[in-house]
Amino acid sequence: MSAPVDRPAAPEEPAAVGGPGGAGTPPERILGDDGLGSAGPHRRRPGLQIALIVIGALAVLGIGLAVATRSDGEEPWAGRLLPEAQEKPDLVLTDTDGRPFDLLERTEGRFTVLFFGYTSCPDVCPINLGTLDTALETLGPQVRDQLDVVFVSVDPENDTPEVIRSYLNKFDTRFIGLTGTPEQIIAAQEAAKVPPAVDGGGADTQSSGAIGHATQMIVYAPDGRARIVYPFGTRQSDWTRDLPRMLGGDVPVDSGAG
Known about the structure:
By secondary structure, the protein is of the alpha+beta class. It contains seven helices and 14 strands. The chain has a domain at 80-247: Glutaredoxin.
């Protein structure tokens, strides 16, 4: 008999691994951070997490800015609100062409800014007119063309029509200049409900020039009524914020009243 031959033992079967497909089904291959098919739990990429956080923060910031900058008529007005609306004065004075100027008739249906001053005023008048002029230049014709600016001189003895025209042309050739007799100018101020001009600076007028006069600029709406005035010291940014609101239909009222 021949001698028995040793045979190598048969390799053992690998243990079956349970998976979603039952026993013996290999585990799912999930793309890992290296993009290869490695088995293991799913992990979110750090870069994606950062991107999502940034997008969410920007969305919240955008909503906040929209709320903070919206113009819904509830923001405070830069000017001083009047306790009750005032009617535009019924005045007929002399313009810079030497012709009669009927204020109600010539400015009917338009926004009108009325201001009393004089051409040799050292501070209030040039600052008020210059600030308003710069604001109107900034806002452009869509605002400027809807607005009349009327300057009434409280120094009729020195401010002739020619002098007034030359003075206003330094700001805007479209500004309207008016004068009249001393009696007419006094009546005009009374009709506009402003303190009458006096020689020398006056506490009532808050003016420090040779002639004390009212320093506020009165804004009348197309309905011929004023609900707001802008005192000396009003900034260009105040005008550029308020004028588009008024021309857009917002009525100057105290949103906190009532």
